[in-house]
Amino acid sequence: MPALPNKRLKLAAPVLEGRVPPLGLACSQQLAPAGEPASERFWQSRCGSYASPVDAGCGQVHAESTAIELTRHRPSVGLLLSLALLPACRDVTAPRAALRPILFTQMVPGWRIYRVGLDGAPPQPITLPGQLVHPAVSRDGQTLAYVNDSVGGGLFVQPLDSGPPRRVYPDTAIDHLAWSPAGDQLVIALRWAGAGPNSGGLRIVRLADGTTRDIAADLSDPAWSPDGRTILAAWGQSPLGTRTPGIYSVTIGDTTARLVIAGRPGARTPAWSPDGTRVAVALGSFGASFIYTMRSDGSDAVQLTRAAPFEYLTDLSPVWAPDGSSIVFQREHTVVLNGARVDRYDIYVVGLDGSGLRNLTEAAAWGGIGPTW
Length: 373
Known about the structure:
By secondary structure, the chain is mainly beta. It has helices at residues 79-90, 96-99, and strands spanning 9-12, 44-45, 48-49, 60-63, 66-71, 102-106, 112-116, 124-125, 132-137, 143-148, 154-159, 166-169, 174-179, 185-190, 202-206, 212-216, 219-224, 230-235, 247-251, 257-261, 268-272, 279-285, 288-294, 302-303, 313-320, 326-337, 340-351, 358-359, 369-372.
């Protein structure tokens, strides 16, 4: 979409003196049809159109040569729009990936979902009840799935434009989850020590009615291919498992798991690129695990992260930017705090050639794990 013309526009949008609004995802700068009241103008999301009026309250925001004057109004606020508008307003000419925030988990206080952008602002919490882990944003950016690990919790989905959370699966014994590209199903990795059949395997949950079906045992870290035909997953590491370490492929409709990336030590957390041509994978062992991209058969591997001499790093959970331009991941590393060396988890971003490595949660007290974009 072309940049806005170099003129002043009046919009209703929530940018409160540079602070991140409550919750939501990325929107472009396209207005609703002319003639709508200013307080009822809508933003069109880059992931689809949303008819939620925008809550108000902010001053002027400048993006390159475009200045947007924001007026104050008080219509209802939608979850999707309120999170998205800060990065969108800050730089209306920025690439799409910069507009869509990254969600992840922090452990202070308790388990909470936080969000952060690429603009250098500190992470901000998302206000949802419970002990929340394993956030995952759907491919179209419209829905958040997460596990509420509290008593009476389970697997929930939350529309990001409006509406309450909905429980779609009653158990919390989940180690990882991933969306189908159509957004109508989730594949979950069951804890190998969890309750019920197929502990430590993969289970598909149909969101319309909550029905489930098991597709493979002793696999973890599932990633659904963009064409919807294949799920990649890592060996489950169960003490009772018999699989060879590596990345496996499960074709939808066939419960046979085929080893497709073998001979790679510590292969974990595969993630498909948006166009389905490459996969990001963590390879290595604790203290020396790094992020690679490769073809889905393991060929043409490119190492993106490395350690300096005597530096111990454990890089896991790569996630592609929505436009495929970069990758975020979690890093366990050692930092010096008050004169003492302590282990810490942070969310990093890196370019596809290994350049532009940056810590996105350095300003946070605890850092973060399990990113989703």
